[in-house]
Amino acid sequence: AKSRHFKWEVEYMHWAPDCVEAVVMGINGQFPGPTIRARAGDNLHIELTNKLPTEGVVIHWHGISQFGTPWADGTASISQCAINPGETFVYRFKVDKAGTYFYHGHYGMQRSAGLYGSLIVEVTDGEKEPFHYDGEFNLLLSDWWHKSSHEQEVDLSSNPMRWIGEPQTLLINGRGQFNCSLAALFSNSSSSQCNLRGSEQCAPNILHVLPNKTYRLRIASSTALASLNLAIGNHKMTLVEADGNYLEPYSVSNMDIYSGETYSVLFTTDQEGSKNYWISVSVRGREPNTPQALIILNYIPTSASNLPNLPPPVAPLWNDYNYSRSFSSKILALKGSPKPPKKHDRRIILLNTQNLIDGYTKWAINNLSLVLPATPYLGSIRYGLNNAFDHKRPPENFGPDYDVSKPASNQNSTYGSGVYMLNFNTTIDVILQNANALQANVSEIHPWHLHGHDFWVLGYGEGRFNEKNETQFNLKNPPLRNTAVIFPYGWTALRFVADNPGAWAFHCHIEPHLHMGMGVVFAEGVQHVKKIPNEALACGLTAKMLMNNVHK
Ligand code: C2O
Ligand code: CU
To answer: Record's family (predicted)?
Structure first.
């Protein structure tokens, strides 16, 4: 294993991600941030300096367990204090498992501002992946608004709430086209054909492939809002990895991908070599108002400037949830993967609702809308600072009379900052229960992401979860993941072992939803956490504690 050192500066810069100039949050002058490549077992040292003039920053390493380093998880108010302008924080952690990951800002709406990049962990020297490929490409997917993330934040927190709407552009590796389309020739919309030289910041990546080879495509979705569907014209794909865990190979002609998920897919270049093909990314799960993102798969030696002669692949209808459910439920663990414990020690049922608090639109879990405290949980729990957050236990379930198929009879809710304290090394079931939103006949998709752990996805169901549904759980080959979706009006059952000392966020990965309170905090084994670096504690009550210790 190696130590890999990086020196990063986060700053605002002018950039034209979709050919329209804007201000993005970049790292070392790059957008998206630099791609990290490491091997399983390596230790990463990322020295992060905040060059934003007037706001704090943190970076979360999405999918990395942070076992033994919970203070390096990069979640403001949970694992550490935000890094102030001009200050440097060193993230030191081990990447213990090969797979496709990414990193992103986890303070306010800094992911929407463009703070993200890829993190790829290859197998250790001498180890082999359980599949073969000749080359690989990496696609980091995101969505982009022309309104700044600060303005979005104010809009969402206004009374009445002003919804941010659908993104203007989908980006692939930080590149998209707002004013033109690569495939205007094939569409009946009024958009004009793009006329790009290739050197523009918004010029699409081109994937150059040789005929009759197998390629690995690593895909991660860092979208703020959009659920996506990806397809390669004329080519089948085989899913082999999700969230850093191997899958039973699953062959598809297109795939859904939700915010917070990562995949590896294999495809073989077995099509006519004198042509090029489209790779398309489209919005699903919400009525789309954003054009497809497109890139070209170029068969060498065909010229990359030859446009494919067929229209780009079209995604299944945005509201074809049966399609999505069937896609998701066929994702299963590779034979030989770790199996879930047969029984759970505790089952927490989390109802997802949209609510009003004094006229403000919020999301709540069992009627509590998460508000992050000034002192990060990790430090306040470790040092027993009792005034740092609500000590009332958040509810384990919701009322038996609640009808998930209709708007709530009482749409009010309250703010909360409580923690689900989990007994160390116990097995926890979480049932995520979807419900109707404020408006009748509306229930949205929410991709839930857990920090510090992978969970087994035991099953999906429709309507209200009932203890009898347990008989439907897949205990044989459920996939291990760190993100799982709940479908409209449905439930999703997860199981994990609380074996990672620390305080961990569990939340909807749609950034505006998290911002409106859609999350909870789990903590376990915090007494086993070794000395937390002072730099992670220099705010709120932990800062006071440090000062008192110095003066004693
Ligand atoms: Cu990728 Cu807490 O998020
Ligand atoms: Cu959500």
So the answer is: Belongs to the multicopper oxidase family.
